[in-house]
């Protein structure tokens, strides 16, 4: 295999054209049901779709476009859809099921861990309020973007 570093624009062009055989990027999500872009073929218009753009098109179009995925990925999509629409108590169980299926099928292969440079170190004073509990008590947070930081305020 030849490894080639390319610009993000070229990486996006290659991914969207479905010309990539293997891509390396960060994977995972701090909130599976709000930001699934790098945990399954989900996005259709950028490099995060990686080698799964045709499957993502099928998923996003409800089967009208793209390529129908293999049975295991269809099952994963089904669990995600049910979890996305479920109340929190059911979403937690469906999330656990999703991650177990994802691990069992090795849809993503992690080859190295990320450090604080990538995930960041998040500290706040106790006077900063309206911070969701999942961030206050979190061990690792990739980004607070889905926590609506513009609603944080100091007491």
Describe the model:
- There is one protein chain.
- 37% of the residues lie in helices and 3% in strands.
- It is mostly helical.
- The protein folds into 2 domains: 1-112, no CATH class; 114-155, no CATH class.
- The chain has a two-stranded antiparallel ribbon.
- The relative contact order is 0.12.
Compile the SSE list and pairings.
Layout: H1 8-16, H2 53-60, H3 71-85, H4 88-105, H5 116-119, E1 128-129, H6 133-136, E2 153-154
Antiparallel strand pairs: 1-2
Instruction: Give the C-alpha Rg.
Output: 17 Å
Arithmetic mean of pLDDT = 80
Number of helices: 6
For the largest beta-sheet, the strand count, sense and barrel status come to: 2 strands, antiparallel
Distance between the termini: 55 Å
Class per helix and strand makeup = mainly alpha
Strand content: under 5%
- How many domain modules? 2
């Amino acid at each position: 295999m030849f490894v080639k570093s390319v610009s993000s624009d070229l990486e996006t062009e290659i991914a969207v054209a479905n010309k990539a055989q293997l891509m390396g990027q960060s994977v995972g999500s701090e909130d599976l049901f709000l930001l699934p872009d790098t945990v399954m073929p989900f996005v259709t218009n950028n490099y995060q779709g990686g080698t799964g753009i045709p499957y993502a098109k099928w998923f996003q179009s409800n089967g009208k476009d793209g390529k129908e995925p293999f049975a295991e990925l269809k099952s994963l999509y089904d669990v995600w859809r049910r979890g996305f629409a479920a109340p929190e108590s059911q979403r937690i169980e469906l999330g656990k099921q999703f991650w177990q299926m994802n691990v069992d099928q090795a849809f993503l292969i992690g080859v190295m861990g990320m450090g604080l440079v990538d995930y960041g170190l998040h500290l706040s004073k106790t006077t900063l309020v309206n911070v969701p509990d999942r961030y206050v008590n979190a061990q690792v947070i990739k980004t607070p973007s889905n926590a609506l930081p513009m609603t944080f305020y100091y007491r």
